[in-house]
Amino acid sequence: MRFLTPAFAPPSFHVIAVAVFLCGLTRTAVCADPPNVVLIVADDHGYADLGCSGLASDVRTPNLDRLAEQGTRFLQAYATSPICNASRIGLMTGCHPARQGCFWYGGKGLHREGLPTIAELLKKAGYANGYFGKFHYGGAKAHQVDSRSFPMNHGFKTFYGFGGGRKHYLVHSAEVESTFLQIQVEQARPGPSLQQGAMWRNRKQVDQSGFTTELFGEQARIFIEKNRSKPFFVQLSFNAVHNFTHQLPEEYLKANNLKGYYDWDAASEETRPVVLVVHE
What we know:
This protein has 280 residues and is an alpha/beta fold. It has helices at 11-27, 62-70, 84-93, 118-124, 174-187, 212-226, 250-255; strands spanning 3-4, 36-41, 128-135, 158-163, 171-172, 199-201, 204-206, 208-209, 232-237. α1 packs parallel to α3. The radius of gyration is 20 Å and the shape is globular. The N and C termini lie far apart (52 Å).
């Protein structure tokens, strides 16, 4: 089983790597030993937040540092957009998000059939495709199960994760989320939801327990083990390090001597303000 596993790099590198491979498939017969492709995406990961960058003394990322040491680290790349959903359209299709009518947050997501995704092209080449973690290409309608943006509708056979901008790291229960939203209405306290809803497992939503980073990684490993005898494409899209980064398992807090912070309680607290600090 051979892997094509590039070191940590901006998302555009992964598009180039897969695009070059796909071009080869279109010009010649399918490779006798096609490489497996694992595309790992971090959410809002800062450029300096890598130990191997040497830019911040308090950052420790040993696993990413090992990837950089054993593979190739690209220091310059081009992103199609500075925001989440638009850049993910570029990552998945290799096209500028404007071709999907996306210029900012919201929009219809992957609604144009004529722009194939990486997964759709690899599926035609005989790959088994699995998507694990966050997908986010547009507004609320683009997260629905019948939307083309839903992973199983643009080339993926297996999906485990959620749709939208963010997700609670520890709570994944439809009942908990519904109760929270109802309390917000009753207390007249508008504000962001903590996104505590259930996970998608293929086309069904199921309540889960666990830390999202570990859950997504575990499901990706299960898929790889199940499909190790055939070529596969795995997209592993963590919600980390997007907010809410204070939500950590108790054992993580103790191991790192952290006191932790509690979630906003809409039943007893006013909406927490967002404070913008400008450094001149």
